[in-house]
Design goal:
Chain B: It is a multi-pass membrane protein. The complex is a heterodimer of chains A (about 350) and B (about 425). Chain A is of the alpha/beta class and about 350 residues long. Chain A has 16 helices and 13 strands. In chain A, strands 1, 2, 3, 4, 8, 9, 10, 11 and 13 form a nine-stranded mixed beta sheet that branches. Chain B is mainly alpha-helical and about 425 residues long. Chain B has three domains: about 50 residues; about 130 residues, no CATH class; about 220 residues, MetI-like fold. Classes of the chains: A alpha/beta (about 350), B mainly alpha (about 425).
Chain lengths: ~350, ~425
């Protein structure tokens, strides 16, 4: 008998779960997109949730491309309202959006993210091109005697590459492959210094990426785990060590660390914000205008994001590591949040 | 005779070697167990060692002067004023009073010791008790995460780099005075996720797991048992049922991420169900656990002796009566065990949930089957990927909670089996 009651109750629970009115209308903002923007957007979302009567937006870290795909799938509460991206929307993605009825989109460029190569202030600072950086850290590099041939990286000291560089062993500490910082480092710094080499000129794009984004595994590049603080600590203790991390950590420790000049540009807030520094990229988010007014709070979330409290000179996003836009750009963002202009395809070309 | 003697001699000679072989064989077995156990011990020691501090929180016990003028607030019932009021200043002033060596110029460094969400706690307290305005209250606030990490790992340099030398001295003083205190981390069990490790909790994930599991159990158990009964008791033996059987076994071996893809394509894209909700998660996990339940239920039905069926049929019971009155009750312990083990597997699953949007930053604790939610293993995954030091211990603490649930479910399976099992 006990069994029967147990069975009935389980069946009952099943029916209840199945029939309970599907509340398809959503009252939580749904945000998808880049894992680089995720740490900034989550902080804004949480502040917005505690400050206002709206519920805290839900954030999924799907990567920039994955986010665009979800975002452009259509209008309706089952589709996300906002997507974050660590690059600009591609025209193909814009076309996909248009095709699926997502015609009115507003773009917000929220700041930048720069990666630096730093060392202790006692160490000899590097002033190198991206090509030199690739020669120092790439797994396979062109043979010095035959630039068309790729060989295992033979360089042991910086001075082996160029006699003007420090006469110390190449040892660079950086984030592990799981980290977004490492992704951008591979993409922007290493590939940036490699894609124009004659040895990879004839390769297909995939082969070129495989060569250019492979880091040497003979101990010259030391993976340090996701804790950037640890890298900072090690650099201070060791004069011949160089470290790769986000710009914000350099700024926090600017009294003890110095940054390498890449392609002749010193990483400063201005150079990164203006995209002059080669290992920098802009961060964006895109808003689906058709959902404003349908999902409560979208406008409020945008206003919170572009408020001086968040993105100002002393804003809380700065303390999480965002390179905030200069004041005029912030004013433009505020105007954008008020007017919500449509993104035009011509802007993306 | 001589032949036989030498035979006995031979046996005696080889005896030693055979004993040795026997001992070696046993030693291999013991070594295998030792390796497995030591792996388990290392794993548990690592998790407990890292996670034990996750169950502790660091608070600041302060005498807060709720001066209306300082806070720009003269009526704590006025929503508009509450929005604009400054709830940080009273906290900073209270803390400054406790650190005699700190001057007004150190206020930023002092403010950095307080949790950024402490002001929200103060606001909510005032909202609930408007009469507290212009009084002095003794209240407890969360300390900043950096302070939390520093206090818990006192003496370890790797954990103190976030605080300046001066801040470290202040914290040491405050600990001595009993203002900075560590206690049981009830916040961890009361809150949803947060980007601030001190404020982050697993209640949201626990409720999310619970809702998902209810849907999974409510769907997979009846369907699985019904399918098993039909296949074992009623279905004719032919090519079609063979084909079905082979496919159920195949389905049990399909990687779980495939079920996630299926869920995305069918439930979300085709049926237009919302992303990140426990109903869809439960449906996907149902598909995943169904084969396990069907297979174990069939095995349980098979193990019921035929004599029982025959006896029942012999006294005139119909096929349905045989199944419902005799076979099912006897097979139930096996079915329940199989289902609970299937559920425990589903509880630890993240991969299929990734695709249906349940791997997400969700702060609010879900209240129903259609609210956005995550589950426990996802919470572990999200925290383990966060750069903040303090999230490492939170992740390990969440693993311990998850393990406690799994052990609980397995214990329930054993208890049910012991209780309902009938021997003959």
């Amino acid at each position: 008998m006990k069994l029967k009651t147990a069975l009935t109750s389980v069946a009952l629970a099943g029916t209840i779960a199945a029939v309970s009115t599907p509340a398809m209308a959503r009252d939580t903002i749904s945000i998808v997109g880049s894992s680089t923007v995720y740490p900034f957007a989550t902080v804004v979302a949480e502040r917005f949730g505690t400050k206002t009567e709206y519920s805290t937006p839900k954030l999924e870290s799907t990567g920039s491309g994955g986010g665009m795909k979800l975002f452009c799938q259509g209008i309706g509460t089952q589709h996300p309202d906002i997507t974050n991206a660590s690059r600009r929307m591609k025209t193909s993605e814009y076309d996909l959006c248009q095709k699926n009825g997502v015609t009115d989109i507003t773009e917000f460029r929220i700041g930048s993210d720069g990666i630096v190569i730093a060392s202790s202030q006692e160490a000899q600072n590097l002033d190198i091109t991206l090509e030199t950086l690739f020669l120092a850290l790439g797994k396979k590099v062109p043979n010095p005697d035959n630039e068309k041939e790729l060989i295992e990286n033979p360089y042991e000291k910086w001075s082996d590459i160029d006699s003007s560089l420090p006469n110390v062993a190449i040892r660079v500490m950086g984030p592990p492959p799981t980290s977004g910082t490492r992704d951008s480092f591979n993409e922007l710094a290493l590939q940036g210094g490699c894609e124009d080499l004659p040895a990879v000129a004839d390769m297909s794009e995939d082969d070129m990426e495989a060569v250019c984004q492979s880091v040497r595994e003979d101990g010259a590049f030391i993976e340090a785990g996701e804790n950037d603080n640890l890298i900072v600590q090690k650099l201070i203790d060791d004069d011949s060590l160089y470290g790769v991390f986000g710009y914000s950590f350099l700024e926090e420790n600017s009294d003890r660390l110095q940054a390498a000049t890449l392609n002749g540009v010193v990483p400063t807030v201005e150079a990164i914000a203006a995209d002059e520094y080669p290992v920098a990229r802009s961060l964006f988010f895109y808003v689906k205008k058709a959902h404003i007014g349908v999902i409560p709070g979208i406008k409020g979330y945008i206003e919170e994001f572009v408020s001086p409290a968040a993105m100002g000179r002393n804003g809380y996003l700065k303390s999480v590591g965002l390179i905030v836009p200069p004041r005029e750009a912030l004013m433009d963002l505020q105007d954008k949040a008020a007017n919500m202009p449509n993104l035009q395809k011509s802007e993306l070309l | 005779m001589t032949d036989q003697l030498s035979q006995a001699e031979l046996v005696r000679k080889s005896l030693k070697r055979r004993y040795r072989k026997e001992r070696r064989f046993r030693a291999y077995g013991i070594a295998a167990i030792a390796i497995a156990l030591s792996a388990l011990v290392v794993l548990f020691a690592d998790i407990v060692g890292k996670g034990a501090t996750g169950f502790m929180k660091t608070t600041l016990d302060l005498q807060v002067e709720l001066d209306g003028e300082m806070m720009y607030l003269d009526d704590a019932t006025d929503e508009r004023q509450l929005k604009m009021a400054d709830f940080v200043e009273p906290l900073v002033q209270a803390l400054l009073k406790e650190i005699p060596s700190a001057t007004e110029s150190d206020r930023d460094a002092v403010a950095d010791l307080i949790n950024p969400y402490a002001s929200v706690t103060l606001r909510d307290a005032l909202k609930e008790n408007p009469e507290w305005l212009n009084t002095t209250r003794s209240m407890s606030f969360l300390a900043h995460t950096d302070v939390d990490v520093y206090v818990k790992h006192a003496g370890d340099d790797a954990y103190s780099i976030k605080l300046s030398q001066q801040q470290q001295r202040w914290v040491d003083q405050l600990v001595e005075k009993g203002i900075v205190e560590t206690s049981f981390n009830d916040t961890f069990f009361k809150n949803g996720d947060s980007r601030d490790p001190s404020k982050a909790g697993i209640l949201g994930a626990i409720i999310g797991s619970l809702l998902t599991m209810i849907v999974t159990l409510a769907l997979s158990f009846p369907i699985g048992v019904a399918a098993a009964i039909y296949l074992e008791e009623f279905a004719p033996q032919n090519k079609l049922t063979d084909f079905i059987e082979v496919n159920i076994n195949n389905l049990a071996a399909v990687p779980s991420i495939i079920f996630g893809l299926l869920g995305l394509a069918v439930f979300i894209n085709l049926f237009g169900m919302p992303r990140s909700v426990p109903v869809v998660g439960g449906l996907v996990l149902t598909l995943m656990t169904l084969p396990t339940i069907i297979i174990s239920s069939r095995a349980a039905i098979k193990s019921v002796p035929p004599s029982i069926r025959e006896a029942a049929e012999g006294i005139g019971a119909s096929k349905m009566q045989v199944v419902l009155h005799h076979v099912l009750p006897l097979a139930m312990p096996g079915m329940l065990t199989g289902s609970i083990i299937g559920m425990a597997q589903a509880l630890g699953e993240t991969a299929p949930l990734l695709l249906i949007g349940m791997v997400a930053f969700i702060v609010d604790v879900p209240e129903g089957f259609f609210d956005s939610a995550t589950v426990l293993p996802v919470q572990v995954f999200l925290w383990a990927g966060s750069p903040e030091l303090a999230f490492i211990e939170r992740a390990s603490a969440a693993i311990m909670v998850l393990l406690a649930f799994l052990i609980g479910m397995n214990a329930l399976a054993i208890w049910l089996r012991k209780r309902l099992e009938r021997r003959w």
